Amino acid sequence: MLWTVARDLLGKLLVVSPQTVNEFREPSSKSKAYRGPHDRAAHSYGGRRTKRTETMYGIGGTAICLFVYGMYNQFNVVTGSRGNSARSIDSRLEPVEGDRLDAQTSSRPTGPKSHQRPGKLCIALGIDRKLDAADLLAERVWLEAQDGIPRFRIATGPRIGIDYAEEWKDKPWRFWNQGQSFYQ
DNA sequence: TGTCCGATTGGT
DNA sequence: CCAATCGGACAG
Q1: How far apart are the C-alpha atoms of A49 and A115, rounded to whole Å?
Q2: Beta carbon of A40 within 7 Å of strand C?
Q3: Strand (E) positions, A79-162?
Q4: Which residue among A9, A77, A126, A138 is least enclosed by CB atoms within 10 Å?
């Protein structure tokens, strides 16, 4: 199921291994699920198929990198089978002890919260649209298993920032690791 | 071409 | 609560 994938993303390490000096490794503490064409909150609602959403219709295991709000990039993961898909997961990551994200977010003062959310995360990891449609089984960006998270540690709640989504607004498709996240 | 809006964020 | 900020979607 879609939300099973979202839940399983928790605790995974997102690794972006570009040709740059740093290799950032971040464990996911939060995820959200968007259910393809039916979900009013999904960009692919109604089967909308444009340049921007095209990647969502690809095969599961592909990255989607979207530009949102004129300011931020967002990293998502496609789930489901080709054509059928139109589904994605959005993840939030927390810094690991000793990481070097602060160096990337530069000018502003940075605390642990400043780069854990999707927009700042992409800045920190250097994720942009160039990674759109990247194969997560290849060598640019991938997910690695870590220690599992006990099921009782995983909380769920409604997704945020989608007030327009009508009855889909209340679906409990946001997941987070209670032992790890700053936000609930 | 013009207008409207957003899967965000940080500051009032 | 609200502004920042601009590409994408869509109407015309």
Answers
A1: 31
A2: no
A3: 88-93, 141-144, 154-157
A4: A138
Token representation of residue A22: 């740093």
Judge whether residue A138 contacts strand B, using its CB and a 7 Å cut-off.
no
Q: Residue A69, CA: closest nucleotide via C1'?
A: B6
The H or E element containing residue A170 is none
- Supply A178's token pair: 């209670």
Strands A24-34 and A13-16: what pairing? Answer: antiparallel
Q: List bases in chain C with any atom under 7 Å of a protein Cβ.
A: 4-10
Task: Identify nearest nucleotide to residue A43 by CA to C1′ distance.
Answer: B7
- A42 contact to strand B (CB, 7 A limit): yes
Q: What is the pTM of this model?
A: 0.82
Question: Residue A22: its pLDDT value, please?
Answer: 46
For A60-105, write each residue's pLDDT tens digit.
Answer: 889 999 889 988 998 889 888 776 656 777 666 654 443 444 433 3
